[in-house]
Amino acid sequence: METSFWSATVLLILITDPLGNIPLFITALKQVRPERRRRVVLRECLIAFAVLLIFLFFGRHFLELMQLSDESLRVAGGVILFLIALKMIFPGEESAFSGKSQGEPFIVPIAIPLIAGPSAMATVLLLSTREPARMLEWTGALTITMLVSTTVFLASGRLQKLLGEPVISALERLMGLVLTAISIEMLMGGVAAYLKKLG
């Protein structure tokens, strides 16, 4: 299945899940003074963007060094996305962000893993290894994704009040459902490619 620019963008937005992460984001910023929150949001989003760009451009060389195949990455990416999707559809009561926030967050937990989590890293790795000639498109898709995430997080307080917890929860489950289908497609594609190579 060929990935288009817009399907890659939608996939990355679904994986980073900015709407679903609003409650966790607000919790992580509880101890930050209101006048500093905008600066913290921009800094953390830039850090996450830089981390994902590193994975996009240099992850392929790491995979070659580790002698990992494209098929194994597709299967692993499908499994990771499936687990993330299940958590979005059936969220648990406990969360890594449910405890008290300790001062101003730096890198952890907002940049990593809230934005640039394992699933986002695996996805950009997959895009770059499958079609390395389209790196400019993948960079554009990642840039749009980070702009969406930054915009949502900057407006997180207003969005939470406007939409309310039930609507945000419903949107997260809907995104999880779409992501489940994408992960299954990715998993089946990886298995099919591996079986074709064996044949």
TrEMBL record:
Coiled coil: none
InterPro entries, A to Z: Multi_antbiot-R_MarC (IPR002771)
Membrane topology: Multi-pass membrane protein
Any one cellular-component term (Gene Ontology): plasma membrane
Highest taxon of the lineage: Bacteria
TM stretches of this protein: 6-29, 41-60, 106-129, 135-154, 174-195
Subcellular location: Cell membrane
Protein's recorded name: UPF0056 membrane protein
Lineage start: Bacteria, Pseudomonadati, Pseudomonadota, Betaproteobacteria, Neisseriales
